[in-house]
Amino acid sequence: MARYTPLPPGWEQSIVLSDDVTHARLRKMYGAAFTSKALEEQSGLLLRYANLMIAQLKVALQQDPTQDVSAWYNFVTFDLTGEFAFGEAFNCLVSGGQYHFFMKTVFEGVVVGLQLGALQIYGVMTLLEPFIPRSVMKPKEDMDNYAQALVDKRAERGYDPNVVDVMNYLLQQKEQEGELSREALHENGIALVVAGAETTATLLTATTYFLCRNPDTLKKVQQEVRSAFKSDEEIDVRSVNNLPYMIAVLSEGLRVFPPSPWGFVRRIASKAGQDVAGNYVPHNARVSITHHAAYRSETNFARPNDFVPERWMSDVPAEFKNDRRDVLQPFMVGPRGCIGKGLAYAEMRLLLAKMLWHFDFELADDSLDWYSTCKPYMVWEKGPLKVRLTPVQR
After folding, report:
1. How would DSSP label each residue in 302-368?
2. Assign residue 171 a region: left if phi > 0, alpha if psi is -120 to 50, beta otherwise?
3. Which residues form the domain of 274?
4. Confidence class for position 3, pLDDT limits 50, 70, 90
5. Which of 34, 69, 210, 261 has a C-alpha 20 to 30 A away from that of 368?
6. How high is the pLDDT of residue 1?
7. 272 and 132: one domain?
8. Nearest CA among 40, 75, 70, 41 for reference residue 55
9. Same domain, yes or no: 273 and 164
10. Is residue 214 situated within a structural domain?
């Protein structure tokens, strides 16, 4: 079991930190919320929030044609995640595009948590903790406390067989063997917010940036989306799966800017050590593959630093035929692979298609070098992405 941050009560039943046996049981609990049937039931929810984002953006553009699209992507994904996970939105969009307290707390708390986790991995956390100012610890404490309050509020409502939010499936265990402790529900609540909202918003932000930096690609994907539909009403969770070039654009976005640039660390449990990719690794060593490095390596991809969606098309150009496509695993693989992958794909495809249908994009001057200002942790620390958005007239 790998340790990423100082471990709070309930960590051993977190879907991120638990051992293999507990993880398998948790995955089964979560699984009901992520089946094809469950996701189909949530398609109306996705569409409602996608349409709300577009409507509120158009209102905001009347005041300022340049908007921070990173913020808007976060507004919609946090609202979606709040309702999908807890049955309660954060109302960022309803308020006209306003940051909820918890959003800022999550951004700051995740970075602090990862920094503290690094101190623990290197064995100096206990030594240094008395000297760390409380102001440094506060963002993570605020994140944890608010997530716990969300979980407690949802738990008070209890299990309801007519409700489909993720916490409902975890609360269902109350009447069954293996009930999760309240501390474990807290830990899983934090994981749901970070994994469900921040990563999808990051991917959409980065993809928008790279499209703006590659105008020919932007024009090509705009043409695909705008020629595929006669009206906005035709754009839904199902129809966006019939946009091969846009899907290739998103795959390239995942390659050049994976939402989790580092790899999830795993510990070698075998006392005798283990062979990993042909190399002997001793017991207790921590092993991971860094996504960002792997996806930007010439060993795996031709022109690795260029944004070229064509490499993901079925009629791939000769230049990219030797790309090792299977290296791209942003959701990981195996029993620890992201259980929410299907939901993430549905969100990113629907939201990007709506944006491309409704708006022309142009980077503001102060965002031309946005990528170079981003800092990679387990997730990215990134600044605003200012884009001039022009509503398409039809």
Report:
1. SSTTS--GGGGSTT--GGGTT--GGG--TT--GGGS-TTHHHHHHHHHHHHHHHHHHEEEEE-GGGT
2. alpha
3. 265-290
4. very low
5. 261
6. 32
7. no
8. 75
9. no
10. no
Does residue 256 register a pLDDT over 50? yes
| Residue 118 pLDDT grade (very low, low, confident, very high; cuts 50, 70, 90) | low
Considering the domain architecture, whether residues 270 and 201 belong to the same structural domain is answered as no
Each residue's pLDDT tens digit, 181-201: 777 787 777 777 777 778 899
Tell me, yes or no, whether 364 lies in a domain.
yes
Provide the pLDDT confidence category of residue 51 given band limits of 50, 70 and 90: very high
CATH assignment at residue 113: 1.10.630.10
- Looking at residues 326-337, what average pLDDT do you find? 86
Long-range contacts of 179-185, Cβ-Cβ distance < 8 Å, separation of 24 or more? 180/13, 180/29, 181/9, 181/10, 181/13, 182/10, 182/151, 182/152, 182/155, 183/8, 183/9, 183/10, 183/13, 184/10, 184/12, 184/13, 184/14, 185/10, 185/151, 185/155
